[in-house]
Design a protein that fits this description.
- The chain is elongated, with a radius of gyration of 21 Å.
- By secondary structure, it is α+β, with helices and mostly antiparallel strands.
- The protein has a 4-stranded antiparallel beta sheet with strand order 4-11-9-6, with no helix packed on it.
- It folds into 2 domains: 3-60, no CATH class; 97-179, OB fold (Dihydrolipoamide Acetyltransferase, E2P) (Beta Barrel), CATH 2.40.50.100.
- The relative contact order is 0.17.
- Residues 55-66 and 74-98 have low confidence and may be disordered.
- It has helices at 3-15, 35-47, and strands at 20-25, 28-33, 58-60, 104-107, 112-115, 131-132, 137-143, 146-151, 156-161, 167-169, 174-179.
- Strand 7 and strand 8 form a beta hairpin.
């Protein structure tokens, strides 16, 4: 698990008001306890007998193994079309520019790794110019070794792919730009 993913997980735990979260994946172990957890333990201890409780924010097993995402290469004979130029996704807080104001973003519902196709030898789910509807699978986001098919949830035509294949994505990050009027 990468540091960015751990950071996002801790942020989500804080937002959901969880007091304790534990996760184990092979040799990797993550324990998160919030201040609310420590406060409730201290209050309980003060009612019975005094004891010292360590406050543990994030602890991991000494052996953390990072697994790199699979390397995906496009065939040399089929270069990407110029119309499908990839660009960085705009931040969620930034207003859309005037030429993109009529467009809708298809965003990632989870943190993970973005893949345009189900495997390196398969064509992408969608490409620039394709017409999609709410149930069209537009990509896969891999999260913790689970491959999640992402549906468009909007109707329209793909105008731009905003993320490079096999790139990490954040929650609510824009993946595709869609023209709903097409």
């Amino acid at each position: 698990m990468e540091f960015k993913q751990i950071k996002e997980l801790v942020k989500l735990i804080h937002e959901t008001n969880l007091t304790e979260f534990k996760m184990k994946d092979g040799d990797f172990e993550l324990n998160v306890r919030t201040q609310k957890f420590a406060d409730s333990k201290i209050a309980a201890a003060q009612q019975s007998k005094p004891q010292v409780l360590p406050v543990q924010t994030v602890a991991a097993a000494p052996q953390i193994q990072a697994v790199a995402p699979p390397i995906v290469q496009a065939p040399a004979a089929a270069p990407a079309p110029a119309a499908e130029t990839l660009a960085a996704a705009p931040p969620a807080t930034e207003a859309a520019s005037s030429d993109e104001s009529n467009y809708i973003y298809v965003k990632s519902p989870i943190v993970g790794t973005f893949y345009r196709s189900s495997s390196p030898d398969k064509p992408p789910f969608v490409k620039v110019g394709d017409t999609i509807d709410e149930k069209t699978v537009v990509c896969i986001v891999e999260a913790m070794k689970l491959f999640n098919e992402i549906e468009a949830e909007v109707k329209g035509k793909i105008v731009k792919v905003l993320i490079e294949d096999a790139s990490p994505v954040e929650y609510d990050q824009a993946l595709f730009l869609v023209d709903p009027n097409a």
